[in-house]
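Q: What structure does this chain adopt?
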Amino acid sequence: MGEIMKTLAAVDLDTKSIQVLFGRNQTSCVSRENGIDLYVKIPTLGEDSRECIISQPGCVYQKLGFHIVETEDRLVGVLVKEAQFPLEKITYQFYLDFLELVKDWKLLRIWHYLPFINDETSALENYKSFCQGRSLALEAFYGENFCALLPAATVVGINDNNLVMYFIAGKEQGTNIENPEQVSAFHYPKQYGSRAPNFARGTIINYKGKQIGYLSGTASIKSHKSVMLMDVAYQLYTIVDNMSLVFERMGLVFERHSYGNIMPDPAKYNRSFKVYIRHAKDAQRVRELFPQMILANEEDQIIYLHSDICRSELDIEIEATIEEK
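A:
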């Protein structure tokens, strides 16, 4: 398909989009002439329910089970796959397909919605089983030193039998970022599973002269420990502190205060956030506090979703995409 894109590079292709639509009754993926719609059975806890992943001239096709939009410099794909438990085997298989699919591209951002993430199968939590399969596939494809290749990523729960994955890859190399106040996820101790989670805390790229920062799903974790568990507001303060640390290392903010609300300037950047909340009863409080903490304005997009988090003791997780205007 890459050869086709080279042939068509000089042709005026129609714009193709990938949209993620939350709050749906069932999870499915539909390819259309003008793009791809991903319907996700994760309930919404706010007004926004639609996320646009790409909208560029390109072509739509399917390969290795993925629905794909390919442009001159982007490969963006979606996978919806019926879960088989334990998740390790199916994850290993589809991840090898995924890595083959993107082998000529640079991975920039990955999302996963994992069925019943905190439930156990054969005495192993589904999230830990997924991490084992993913890690083994990465090692089989790239070799032992695969950690440097890992971009920003999110793994949260979906109460559905369908596993969801979508991704962005490009031609340019991103810079992966870690948080100085957190142990890198791929170096977590064995208490979090025999195979560590494999992702960077963030990825920053320069795309057509503008910076884009992808912030991974960020929770109330310092070092490698879950903290501030007594109250969702305290977790939120810690998350925003972690976010600002990563944004600072991306070069998107230039000063930061302890537990501060130093975020990329909305006058300079388009800002999109997804807030995953475990307990629906916490939604109103989070929706009141979070916009204040990031100095949100009407141009910001904030999607609030009712979703379980990878650690069962945590109640909230936040990710972001920050794009220079």
